[in-house]
Amino acid sequence: MPTIRISEPTREALWKLAEESAESMQALLEKAVQAYRRQRFLEETNRAFDALKASEQAWKGEQAEREAWDVTLADLANPWTSPEGLLLQQDVLALVWDDPALDVYDHA
Predict the structure, then answer these.
(1) How confident is the model at residue 73 (pLDDT cuts 50, 70, 90)?
(2) Residue 82 CA, distance from chain mean position
(3) Whole-number Å distance between alpha carbons of 23 and 16
(4) Where are the domains of the chain?
(5) Which whole-number Å values give the CA distances from 94 to 22, 89, 90, 97, in the listed order?
(6) pLDDT band for position 7 (cuts 50, 70, 90)
């Protein structure tokens, strides 16, 4: 296992956190690194998003793409409401209504 140097105040803080949480110093250090990586990822994502919004042309393109995905996702969420789904419903209902076993009325 590799060894790293940390300052004495950092080691003491890490030791105290380990005592309080009943976790190892290694586990806490791993969690801290992962939290820092997530924080940096979100900061970088926010910077990229701000840059996108700063360009009027790029932002309009983003909005148009979102609208296209909203329609697509709406069809996926309820496939029966898409044009293909409505045609499928029509075909299925035509088969069902032509089935004499489902005829509950006495036509005699």
Answers:
(1) low
(2) 23
(3) 10
(4) 7-54, 56-102
(5) 67, 8, 6, 5
(6) very high
Answer for the pair 80, 86: CB distance below 8 angstroms, yes or no.
yes
Token pair, residue 52, equals 């996108």
Question: Is the pLDDT confidence value at 108 over 60?
Answer: no
Q: What letters, b where the CB count within 10 A reaches 16 and e where it falls short, cover 25-59?
A: eeebbeeeeeeeeeeeeeeeeeeeeeeeeeeeeee
> What does the block give as tokens for 80?
């029966």
- Does this model's pTM top 0.70? My answer is no
More confident residue, 72 or 38: 38
- Whether the CB-CB separation of 27 and 34 falls below 8 Å is answered with no
